[in-house]
Amino acid sequence: MRLDPDIQAFYERGAEADRLLGGFPSGPLELERTKELIGRHLPDGGLQILDVGGGPGVHARWLMDLGHEVRLVDPVALHVEQATQAGVAAELGDARSLTSPDSSADVVLMLGPLYHLLEASDRELALAEAHRVLRPGGLLFAAAISRFAALLDMLVRTDALDEAVMPLVAEAVKTGAFRGGLEVFTNAYFHLPSELAHEVEAAGFGDAEVFSVEGPGFLVQNFEDRWADPTRREILLASARLVETEPEMLAAASHLLAVARRPETLR
Question: I need a labelling partner for 219 at 20 to 30 A (CA). Which of 4, 98, 169, 213 fits?
């Protein structure tokens, strides 16, 4: 299976290594909230975690620091190299065809693949693979970009929604497919919250709970200044928690996180 060449080229630029650490303004908020949401659901004890599409290993690294055994799979050679240099066990691989044995992981992270698989059939394959490699009762954490994230971000935060970009954003709002190529983000699929839950559950998982990761904080101006101030940072985090499962607010998220469990027994 082959990664979209535009997506491959976009990530080979190397920017992903710093995105969550401040390379993208609200990246630190995304990181902190993702850690919070995952940590809230993890059971006690050392776990076998498979980080699918784990990029340079930012999430794998903090999970390892908590005592978990993490293996990372990513389709971008640069990411595998960067993760390996960070001390993460990493290998080239594709979310749609994992090499892990059946029922071999306690947790599967999919914090990138679903929004770079534009075809529903490819997302179905990836989720089916996550279900296969999880032990009964194991947890899936699957991230998505919200359907209206580009519209909100470009209109409100960056003021970058011009005549050239508007057709791309309009198509994404209508169909979910964002064809950014190499110039505007890259090619991606943007989910409706209910759609994300449906895709996860259709793959055989139990009821999926969908969270807003950043809440409205991804749209604020002067993010770096606010994040650097402990009091204002806590307000950003508290605001995200306040509406993290509010149905009427989920569609206004930047990133969504579905949390679901492989049933102990087959349905």
Answer: 4
Domain count, the chain: 1
Is 173 a domain residue?
no
The whole-model pTM stands at: 0.97
Nearest to 17 by CA among 101, 97, 85: 85
CA–CA distance from 56 to each of 15, 20, 226 (Å)? Answer: 10, 11, 27
Supply the CATH number for residue 107's domain: 3.40.50.150
Domain, as residue range, for 115: 5-147+190-261
Q: Is residue 240 part of a domain?
A: yes
Greatest CA separation for the chain:
53
Rounded to whole angstroms, how far apart are CA atoms 131 and 96?
11
State how far the Cα of 18 lies from the Cα of 113, in Å rounded to an integer.
Answer: 19
Q: What is the pLDDT along the chain (267 residues), one digit of tens a residue?
A: 789 999 999 999 999 999 999 989 999 999 999 999 999 999 999 999 999 999 999 999 999 999 999 999 999 999 999 999 999 999 999 999 999 999 999 999 999 999 999 999 999 999 999 999 999 999 999 999 999 999 999 999 999 999 999 999 999 999 999 999 888 899 999 999 999 999 999 999 999 999 999 999 999 989 999 999 999 999 999 999 999 999 999 999 999 999 999 999 754
Q: What is the C-alpha end-to-end distance of the chain, expressed in Å?
A: 30
E-strand ranges in the chain read 48-52, 69-74, 89-92, 105-110, 134-146, 177-179, 187-191, 209-212, 255-261
Please report, for residues 38, 217, 245, 249, the alpha-carbon distance to residue 239 in angstroms, rounded to integers and kept in the order given. 18, 7, 12, 12
